Amino acid sequence: MSVIEATALPGRTRNALAWMRANPLIAAGGFMVLVIVVVAIFAPLIAPYPGDAGYATHPLDIFKPPSTKHLFGTDNVGRDIFSRVVYGTRVSPLIALAVVAIASVVGVTVGLVAGFLGGIVDEILMRITDVFLAVPALLLALAFASVLPQSTGSTILAITISWWPWYARLARGEAASVSRRRYVETGRVLGLSRLRLLTRHVLPNATTPVLVQASLDFGGVILTAAALSFLGLGAQDPTPDWGLMVNEGRSFFQTYWWAVTFPGAAILFSAAAFNLLGDGLRDRLDPRRVVGR
Amino acid sequence: MTRFLARRVVLSLVVVAGVVLLTFVIARIVPGDPATSWAGPHATAAEVAQARKHLGLNRPFIDQVGTYFRGIVVGRWGTSIHTHRPVLSDLKTVVPASLELVFAAILLAIAVGVPLGLLAARLRGRTTDHAVRAVAIVGVSMPIFWLALILQLVFFNQLHLLPVAGEYALRFQEHPVHAYTHFPVIDAALNGNWAMLGSSFSHLVLPACAVAAYPTGVIARMVRASVLDVAGETHVQMLRAFGFREGTIFNRFAMRLAWNPVAQVVALVFAYSLVNTFLVESIFDWPGLGSYAGESIIALDTPAIVGITLFVALVYVFVNLAVDLIQAALDPRIGLH
Amino acid sequence: MSVSARVFGVSAVGAALLLVAGLAGSGAARAAGGSTFVYDSYTQVMINWDPATAYDQEQVALENMYETLTRFNPVTQKLEPLLATSWKKSQGGKVWTFNLRHGVKFHTGRPFNAQAAKAALLRMQKLNQAAAYAWSAVKSITTPTPYTLVLHLAYPQPMDLVSSAQYSGYMYDTKAAGKEDLTKWFNAGHEAGTGPYELQTAAPGQEVELTLKQFPGYWGGWKGKHYSSLVYRIVRQDSTALQLAKSGQVSFVQQISPQLWATVKGSPGLSTPTGGSFENLLIYLNTASGPLQNKAVRQAISDAIDYQGIVTALKGAAVRQPGIIPTGLFGHSSTVPLHQTNVDKAKQLLAGAGFGPGKPKITLNVTYTQGDSNEQLISTLMKSNLAPLNIDLNVTALTTSTKYAKARSTSPADRQDITFIYWYPDYPDPATWFISLLHTQNPPSFNFAYYSNKALDKQIDSIERITASNPAQAQKVYRQMEMTVYNDVPIISLYTVEKQRIVLNSVGGYRDNPAYTDVVFVYQLHPKA
């Protein structure tokens, strides 16, 4: 028994290596996402100055360049940028999670109803999604965020409003194609309830594309949330939001380059991580879909 | 064919009407007190009362929507709070600068993205392919406001090469050129003002590069994917069976067929890039839609924000419609879908 | 070579060509400058276009379009003739006679004379805003000859000094609008001054907000070297302002973060003059509504702020001083206590009011001017100072006029709890801090603390007369008023501003005139090679 395991492990490792070589993007994306998750979980242990992600300020340590004491330097009120970047993994990735979760639930519900019922309901619901899709997501989110009170909740709401129609379209397409399949038609003829058909047959079929879309959307939502914060419509100081940190540092960036460079790089890293992963997943699970947003 | 066109146009009109309704919701329903939000924080009590009357807040809901629609159609888009001018004439002033920026960025994106996509498709699965896809993903994952700052840091601060702010050096304002297009680069060329051409060109390079990041990534991915898609289709495989060389198949047939989805994606990224200028213009002090939007946000200027939203949505719907119609005209099969 | 490789090659070459063309162009752009003076401001310049009621940042432009009767020279510390060529006082300072300059024209084409001056002053007095208080001693104005203006006063006032003030003393053509309403006409973006530069274009909300050009009919003439035009450019980002100055595209930077300013010293082509000022940064606490109505909460805030931290963070741009009247002005009293940081005392005060750690949270709305990196920095530091006391600040960056609009909102619920203002005297006299900021105002014009104290109002109403008749007594009253402010805390004076400018070396003849805050008199400058 133990002998078999001993020889099997290297084989598995070899397989894994071969797989990674064949799918370098998905492997890289997966690894980067793992880094983000680990950093987010262990932020208090990793960040040397956890207080700096909160209300602390240090007027005597303003704009200290990167050093062993402050890995990424300090900002315009003397906070350790490394600690803030580390804690930032708990801000925009979580916003993205909330947006994607809410948008997919709302969107999938609308889409399934439209696709399954068809007819006039379908037409109306799809025209509504057309309207939302006619306004670029960032702009629609910006317009809503500008009339809502400034808070993280508003940011999530504003982005969700501009994001759900994509899921509705997707789910509707799946539902429409599934509901025309023979076994569903048969089920209908046999008198199975619509709800049962929806949940038992249509929903499972829509799951894969929705999951792929959701993983692809993470990156986009992180960028949108960062853009809103950068425009001053998102999180409030002292939230260690990367977009906000770039916004606060931009007045000084040519002299104190570290104040924008590291938070911005964190946005790029996390958006790229999820995009790589999503892209790879789509290739493997749902090769028909070519382009995200 | 005609039916297809008619349906397409009618659907676009429905979407436009829906967008107007959506902006109505943003302007009149979401804010706590629409009259205060519409009249702006500068407003006196009398002005707020006037706004209340103008918006007809005491009238039935359907009436209000009707008045709002009529206003949009006849060009009464409200008055900007921070410029005290009609929003529509503000838009007329600022839009050309943004269009210039977006056109430049899209051209750049096509010039870089299309060859990259073709290269990746041709060398599918090899290191080059992976590298191109990685580059494309970095492009679509780029926080472009950050890219803009980094570009400034490198090209202005370190290399002292390119200017950082404005559409061209201020001195050219003293002797304005005749504005044929309101695009300084083109106007300067048409007027034969070479110094200004150089100046406006050098001012355009960095912001255009920043805005181009996203469309470059999208176009490269789209080109790669749709070429591979076409290359896998039956009739292309038949060509293979006829003994055409892979290169010939690729160059002669696949690329041509892949063109449609690429055109559509360009239309899509056009509108997205117009919004992305919001993040870049304020960094380069580019006097366009994005700077206007930025000022509107810090002035709590609801009419202006609503006007911007409506304008961009109209552009988007129109560009999409135009692409569809052109494609339908060029490729009769489309109408059959 | 495949098509894709060819396409790639062609576009690579194209991109390279574009870049080269761009670089060549930037070389040409470098040589900019010409004879345009570019004034860089971090916030909008024109807030109120009416010269009779303007009371803000717009004086930096107005002083180049309009003129006053006299002007204060900071070097000689004396008043110099401007639209008045000479003046004298009689009857113990109760009658002032100004002899006006001949041959002066308004930009509208009409001549400037005693009648025109009287009309401008009367309208200013009637509107009774801005620094009109300084003219309140004037009972009547007569014009015995077309070029003689006589002011008759109720009590002695230094009217030669008052007429040099940076607000309310402008001479403008009251007939400029014809039959239209003059205030509306001004605020539609017009001017009607006599100054060396006249308005060419105005674009509110845009980066190049104002362009002024030489007024050909200017009485001073245009012999010698002068700037041919004057541009006011709004640059909200300090980093951009710095880049523009370094590349010679702005001539003068009004204010920049001290952190950046310190790095400019010694840059080729730039000079970094500094100067003291009578300008201080004040924090308003909303005494009329919200949690700050409670005096104990206001006192707690004044005890919780880390003043030393703020001054340290502002690296030499800030000097702490007791009271709200800056050192060097009449009325300043060094015996007024300085607000000190005392967190324990703050906690006690809050506990007494039912707030503080473990008790209900206080959330305060703070507004500041977008683009002012110092106000942003201070907001962040204050937020940090107050968090341990269970007080949260909700900070919003707004344009200047939106910030004011919010502060002047008719509904008290829409007003902020805390905001900032820079204040400086209209002419070297301290009364403005009390008259403009602390006197009961309904509706509020600049009293954004919404402070109303009958006893203080009474003292304010009489302070000008007392100053004229009995300076020693006035000094005492000022100290009493300072103590009221110290104890009641409607306003906290954070620091007095040390001006840190950036000026191009190609600007000839630049000198800061602290009597005219942030103003550059461009007519007095000349472009150097």
Strand content of chain C: 15-25%
Alpha-carbon distance between the two ends of chain A: 50 Å
* Multimeric organization: heterotrimer
Q: Which structural category do the helix and sheet elements of chain C fall into?
A: alpha+beta
Instruction: Estimate the global geometry of chain A from the Cα principal axes.
Output: globular
Total beta-strand segments of chain A: 0
What series of H and E elements makes up the topology of chain A? HHHHHHHHHHHH
Any idea what the radius of gyration of chain A is? 23 Å
Structural class of chain A: mainly alpha
Give the total of beta strands of chain C. Answer: 23
Separate helix tally of chain A:
12
Largest chain interface and its two residue counts?
Answer: B-C, 64 and 57 residues
Strand percentage of chain A: under 5%
- What value does the average pLDDT of chain A take? 85
Concise structural overview:
The complex is a heterotrimer of chains A (293), B (337) and C (529). Chain A contains twelve helices and no strands. Chain A is an all-alpha fold and 293 residues long.
Give the topology:
The complex is a heterotrimer of chains A (293), B (337) and C (529).
Chain A: H1 2-22, H2 24-41, H3 43-46, H4 81-88, H5 92-117, H6 119-133, H7 137-147, H8 152-179, H9 182-190, H10 194-230, H11 242-249, H12 258-285
Chain B: H1 2-29, H2 34-39, H3 45-55, H4 61-73, H5 87-122, H6 127-140, H7 144-158, H8 184-191, H9 194-231, H10 234-241, H11 246-257, H12 259-284, H13 289-298, H14 302-330
Chain C: H1 3-30, E1 36-41, H2 59-65, E2 70-73, E3 78-81, E4 84-90, E5 95-100, H3 114-127, E6 138-142, E7 148-153, H4 159-162, H5 182-187, E8 197-202, E9 208-214, E10 229-234, H6 238-246, E11 252-253, H7 258-264, E12 270-271, E13 274-275, E14 280-285, H8 295-304, H9 307-313, E15 318-319, H10 343-353, E16 362-369, H11 373-386, E17 391-398, H12 400-407, E18 418-423, H13 431-437, H14 454-469, H15 471-488, E19 491-497, E20 499-500, E21 502-504, E22 507-508, E23 526-527
Parallel strand pairs in C: 1-10, 1-11, 16-17, 16-18
Antiparallel strand pairs in C: 2-3, 4-5, 5-7, 6-7, 8-9, 9-10, 11-21, 12-21, 13-20, 14-18, 14-19, 15-19, 22-23
Helix pairs in contact in C: 8-10, 14-15
